[in-house]
Amino acid sequence: MDLPDEMILAIWNKLSKIDVLYSFVGVHQRFNRLVFDKTYIQSIELINSNSKHKHLMTVPILDRFCSYILPQVHTFVESLTLESISMERVLSVGTYHHLRKLTIINIDQEFALRHFTDESPFTEIFNEQITHLKISIIDPERSLSSLIDLTTNVFARIFSLFKNLTELDFGSTGRRRYCPRLKI
């Protein structure tokens, strides 16, 4: 506790933000003050980035984020990166008034058909707030025609729902990459 704030921040910069938030929120008032600084929490990646291949965080970590951490910081978040399977839970935690950039990892056609509609509980966020959208789609050994159908359906949904979109980064993940990365 005798270390200056700058030293603590330098140490935290060597760690992933998700590890810092998970490990230090609620431990000490001083750590909370440092962690909850607006510049530190404006961009949050809710994926495990400790390995070469980013993957879903563990359930206990996601539980702590959704029940304790995000309710305290949601109003300051400007950029979120998350897995498609956790999107609904994460976005339901708060209002995210300043959210402008959304990255969704591993979506499939079912996800797009369910969430990129006017009936989605997140329509207001998608319609009015999101200006930068980055999506990676799952293409587990899809045929070329199947991938083209997926891409067409997802694009149609995105362009009809995201009214303020100024940047779209769209690409596939997987062993076969019939859908090249597309940045608009």
Automatic annotation (TrEMBL):
Gene3D superfamilies: Ribonuclease Inhibitor (3.80.10.10). Residues 1-44 form the F-box domain. InterPro entries: F-box_dom (IPR001810), LRR_dom_sf (IPR032675). PROSITE patterns: FBOX. This is F-box domain-containing protein. It comes from Rotaria socialis.
